[in-house]
Predict the 3D structure of the following.
Amino acid sequence: MKKIFICIVLFSLSMHVNAQVKTVRAQAAIINDLLSDRINNLLPQLMKQHNLDCWVMITREYNEDPIVKTFLPAEWLSARRTTMLVFYNNPVTGKLEKYAVARYAVGKEIKAAWDVDTTPDQWEALTNLIVKLNPNKIAINVSKDFGHADGLDHSNYEELVSHLSKPMQAKLVSAEPLAVAWLETRT
């Protein structure tokens, strides 16, 4: 009986040893596919549910907003320089518009929306985009109750406010309910 038990255990262990683990590159492809699905299907629903038509996230290298990190491709360890993401649920087309006000696209889903030659100042480029979109509300990651929804640092907040007109400043709201819903919703 002991020999049979040992054989079963050894056979079971050999099955686990032969199990294949995907390469890091293959794992990244799966993660990026899931992220694409979340951005294109989940995010518009959550924005509509929380009555937010524009979500602006600003983060900088080495001090990443916890929410922005969940939008980065699997191959990225962190944000690069100052990264500005803008998601706009267009009420006319019904489509989610995705912008990276940065010199580079953020993965395959969020295209670069900053032409440095035309507008050398990144903050001006962000302001121009927000004015063009003219959202009803501009959700930003500030929160008194949830640290993971409070990723907009004070310096970037001040910079944002200083570039927005008074009417646009009045549209700033906390993205807290959207940020929490984004993190807590499984796909």
Strands lie at 54-60, 82-89, 96-100, 111-112, 138-140, 172-174. The chain has a mean pLDDT of 90. The CA atoms of residues 7 and 13 lie 10 Å apart. The first strand starts at residue 54 and ends at 60.
